[in-house]
Each structure stands twice: as C-alpha cells, then as structure tokens.
Amino acid sequence: MPDDSVAIVDAGPIGLAAVMTARLxxxxxxxxxxxxxxxxxxALALGADVTINNGNTDAVAEVMELTGGLGADVAIEAVGxxxxxxxxxxxxRCQRRRPWTPGxxxxxxxxxx
Length: 113
What we know:
four-stranded parallel beta sheet; alpha/beta; Rossmann fold; 4 strands
C-alpha cells in the first residue's frame, strides 16, 4: 500500500526483483537487508531507500529504530531459508499483514500459528 514501509531480506536476484516491484506501489520506505555490500549497492540503484548489512548490524533493531519502534508494514523474505528475521522485522501490531516468501501460493493464509 502507498506509504507502507517494506523490509526485503536478501538482495539477491529475487530480493532485487522485490525491490523493483515494491517501488511500483509507492511505499514510504524500502529497507534492503543483506550481508554483501555489493548487493546492497545494487538494491540502492534499483530503488531501495535504506540498506542494512545484517552481517555486522542487528538488522531487526535497525529497522525498528528507523520506523520509530513500529517495524516494517511488510516483510519479504527472499532468501528461501528462514522466516524468523522477516517475522521479527514486520510491524507487530498489524495482524492482517504477514511475511511473504517466493513460492508462497497460500497468500490468504497466515504463516504464524
């Protein structure tokens, strides 16, 4: 939605595609998280507003700080391994929102029990 904050975990090919796609929806801010500075530079070039190297920074704490303690409205996990970071980075008070992962076909179902 317009003005939402979006956290994208991993700035590989899928994450970079997510950055470009998210930009189409006029978000407030797009946060790109990765351990590789070169990937983060690409994310900036493709539309990310903020990059966070989660190899040397507590990315969840950084997102929380940059959103005034609210967390991101939307978290996209593009690594394909774990949703823990995406779950922690999203805005906890938004029950209607959930992390999305590539290949997720049940978009209407909540991931959290």
